[in-house]
Amino acid sequence: YSPDFIREKLDYLHDNPVRAGLVTKPEDYLYSSARSYAGLDGVLDVVQIDLPWITY
């Protein structure tokens, strides 16, 4: 999988609270890792690990 493919899926997940009408921006949802990606504090600790992606 490419980094763009992974980012597309992550964006889709982060947008779920917005589509559900819970917040107006993904980073506004307290229980989302979108907060970490936006540089905000949240209840989740997100650790980014850079690993090589293997494609078949």
TrEMBL record:
What is the species listed in this Swiss-Prot or TrEMBL entry?
Acetobacteroides hydrogenigenes
Q: Name one GO biological process term.
A: DNA transposition
Protein name per its UniProtKB record: Transposase
One MF term in the entry's GO annotations = DNA binding
Which Gene3D superfamilies does the protein's record reference?
A: Transposase IS200-like
